[in-house]
Amino acid sequence: MKNTKLILGIVTSMVLTSCAVIRPGEVGVKQKLGKLSKTSHFQGAIWYNPFITKVIRTNIQINDIELSLSLPSKEGLSVIAQISILYQIDKNNVPKVIKNIGLGYKTIISNVFRSASADVCSKYYAKDMHSGMRAEIENAIKLKMSETLSDQSIIIQSVLMKSIKLPDGLSNSIEQKLQAEQDAMKMVFILQQEKLEAERKIIEASGTKDAQKILSEGLTDQIIKIRSIEAFIELSKSPNSKVIITDGKAPYLIE
Predict the structure, then answer these.
(1) pLDDT mean over 125-153
(2) Which residues partner with 83 through β-bridges?
């Protein structure tokens, strides 16, 4: 009975230790007697002989490397940048990556980035890294890195320059320039408003002048007499006592 339990325990232990579980986002590669298999194993359980074989797991999800370094500019200045590199291992070539680079590929990616970023940034002025050209610089670094790493089955998804710190003197100059541009835009707006207001007043004055001209041209002596008669008639209808003094041309009313 004891021998049976012992054998059963050994068998159970061997079964448990000869099974590896590959989680989502991982790839497993068998290494038998030091020789890598060319087959990649994805999510699920795989069986192997624990005495002569082991399973090497590698993450194939998109990962992030954070770097803070000084980048050279075209005018020879040093720009401090906080960089984020998003990369991914080609899931179909994991055995190749393990064989050629190993699992320490983060160091390789960082070193390739340092070289590519220095080469690309040296072609741009420091102010370009702080302007709308940042996306262009990021893409140029990504393409430069891909030239080296794509053959090693490492995919660079994107390079992000999250923060840029320019030299103090240059930073102040840029801020002053931006402020001057904003002030100029504000002044243009004010001038446009003043111009529109001036045009409005001219149109208003022209309209008033035309109205007065039309009115004066329409007020003939005959019309004035008729209006005076109408005014006398309206006054006569009033119940209040009144004295009307007139020379026959225009009434003067005293109540």
Answers:
(1) 87
(2) 67, 161
How many Å apart are CA 83 and CA 46, to the nearest integer?
38
**Does 98 score more than 60 pLDDT?**
yes
Is the Cβ–Cβ distance between 43 and 76 less than 8 Å?
no
**Taking the C-alpha atoms of 218, 220, 224 and 225 in order, what is their torsion angle to the nearest 10 degrees?**
-140
Distance CA 81, CA 167 (A): 11
Residue-range domains of the chain with CATH: 2-59 (no CATH), 63-169 (3.30.479.30), 218-254 (no CATH)
Percent of the residues in the chain that have a pLDDT greater than 70, as a whole number = 68
Query: Phi first, then psi: what are they for 148, rounded to 5°?
Result: -90, -40
Of all residues in the chain, the percent with pLDDT exceeding 90 is 15
pLDDT given at position 133: 85
11 pLDDT higher than 50: no
Give the helix/strand (H/E) hosting 174.
helix 168-218
Q: Helix (H) and strand (E) counts for the chain?
A: 6, 10
The Cα 26–Cα 103 span in angstroms is 13
The β-bridge partners of 87 are 63, 156
pTM (two decimals):
0.58
d(CA 54, CA 33): 9
- Res 86: pLDDT: 94
Phi then psi for residue 166, to 5 deg, are -85, 160
